[in-house]
Each structure stands twice: as C-alpha cells, then as structure tokens.
Amino acid sequence: MATADPALKFQVLTGLLESESTTLIGIDAGEVLTLAEGRGLEAMGVAATATVGASLAQAFAGQPGVLEHFRRSLQGEQVRVESVHGQAYWLHSFYPLRGPDGAIVGAAMLALDVTRDLTTVRQAELLRELVNNVPTNVFAVDTRGVCEVSEGGLLAQIGLKPGQNVGVNVFEAYNTLIPDIGLAMSAAFRGETRVIEFGFGESLYSQITLPRRDAHGNNAGAYCIASDITERRRTEELLRSQVRIIQEQKEAIVRLSSPIIEVGHDALAVPLVGSLDEQRATSILHELLQAIASKRARFAILDLTGVDTVDPTSAEHLVRIIHSVRLLGAQAIITGIRPPIARIMAELGLDLSRLHTLRSLQDALRYCSESNPDGR
C-alpha cells in the first residue's frame, strides 16, 4: 500500500534495516557506494569495507559474485540469488535504479536472511521424503473437507501420486467409497479422534483421524493417517482359526479319552485314563450330567483302572463329579481302584465311606443288573 507520509516511510525503512536479517546497499553508475545500511552487514562480513564512498570492488573484494550481480543490474537486469555466509542463508535481490528520464543511475541490493525459513522448508522436504517412503498415507484437510496435503508411500497402491488429492473435497470424492469417513471427519472437527477400517480394492486399511488446530488452538480441519492392515488381519484370522482348531482337537481328545458308554438300560460307564485335571473334569462332569438327564440313568460307573495317579486336585475333581451325580438322583459307583491309587487316596484323607466301590467294571455291571429301583 502506498503512503504519502515520508516520515512513516522513513520509520518503516529504519525499523527494517535495524533487523539483523536485513541489508540494503546502493551504488551509483560509477560503482561507488551511496547507501550501506542494516545490521546484516556484520553477518555478511562486510561491515568494515561496505561504507558510503567506498568503491564496489573494495567493499566486496572477497565476494566476486556480488560484484557480478551489481554490474548486471547496472546493465538493466534484475537478479535474484541465494548465498551462504557462515551458518546463514541469504536471499539477494539486485535491481537497477533509474532517474526521471528512465536512464540507469545506479543499482541497489536488498539482502534478507532466510535461514529460518529455509530450514523450515528443508525440514518439510525431509519429512515429505520420509512419509513417501514408509507404508502409510497422510492427508490434511481444512474445515470444508478440502485436501491440503496428500503424501505417503501407499498412495500408489490406491492409484494416486503424492499431492494428487490436493484441492479435492474428500467428502464428495470418498464418501461413497468410504462410508465412515464423513463421521470420522466431523468427529475430528469437534476435537475427537476416530479410528475406522475400510476396504479399498483388494486391501483393508485402518485410518486414524485426528483434530487439526491452528496457532490459536482453533479448529483447522483434520489429519488422516491410513495404513494397510491386510496382512495383519489375515495373520490374525489365521491365528484365530488355528486356536479354534487346536481347541476343538483338545476337546475331541478329552471326549475320546473319557467316553460315556451306555452299558445297560439305566447305567452309564466312564472309563478314566491318565490324569484328571480341571478342564478334563469339567468336560466329563458336563457330558455325564447331560447323559444322565437325557437317558434317565440310575447308575454312573466311574472306572479308574486307567488312572495313572491321584493328587489332591484330582481327588477334589472326583468328589465333585460324584456329588453332582447324586444331586441328579443317580448312584455313583467307583471301580478299578488299584492298590497304589487306594494308598494315595488314603494318604490324602479322601473320605470314601459314602462311596460305593467295586473291584471291576464287570462287578459294577452285575450290581446294576441285579439292583432294582427300591435298592438304589
């Protein structure tokens, strides 16, 4: 904006030149410095030589590039270049100065320290390079849903190039393909984080949608980070399937190792083999009680001929099975207790006084056939 107030112009110019990041140098047509202002002269290393009245060659004896650019400006050319002084990056603008008749009467250079801006740009470039080389897609949208950033190593997987979605309204472009994206975006605009899953082509993706804030903490849109979870989901399904198969096989083994056999009109036999752990005892109890109820059995024969050993836990399970059988009105009969097992039971203090025990399964079958309802 132009202003007619010379004092204001001078104040603004003075404030600009007092900045450490600004330098302004002017020369006349004879390459003599007519203006040398700005604290940036020190940073550029010419504070001692770039003084009014000094020749251009003397002021920038160690910087031949500056001499060349000034001389090009004296020929009527505008030049814009970057340079490095110490750890700082400078942007130089050289332009000719013309008199009232349009003739070139000198040249000027405005130098700005853009180190911070350039560092930010380079960091952004590095971040962009990183994002485009990892298996994820990153989007940023404004409050209208218009994409402002579209980067990621998985873009090619969905037929896109980095930056291709910039300017696209994601609500309009993807609401049909990804039904939950509108709800996720709206939640992010309210300050909430949402995770959605969706299929795209032959792949399955997981997308986290995050709130986006401006420098004042106000809602500025949303960030979306999507990753391909196809293989992970396949692995999870495979593991679940394997666990299910193993469980089914284990249950089948338990059933086969302790089958419930109908040995008479109203008698069931359960040959026990090996050890009796909690899972196996629970399975036997469930199956046996179901069989007693459905077949209206009066006798349940637990044959211990194949039992290897009995510990306190096994004994508790055995007592629990017998007690449950009684609650259904059936009589539990224990057969096949071998001497080592009988000794262990005695040492454990298991009360067998209320149990009906017989020597063998054959004796139990004979007992059941000779018994009548009144003799239960």
From TrEMBL:
Residues 257-368 form the STAS domain. Transmembrane segments: none annotated. It comes from the Bacteria. Pfam families: PAS_4, STAS. Residues 189-241 form the PAC domain. InterPro entries: Bact_StressResp_Reg, PAS-assoc_C, PAS-like_dom_sf, PAS_4, STAS_dom, STAS_dom_sf. The keyword Phosphoprotein applies. SUPFAM superfamilies: PYP-like sensor domain (PAS domain), SpoIIaa-like. Keywords: Phosphoprotein. This is PAS domain-containing protein. It comes from Nannocystis bainbridge.
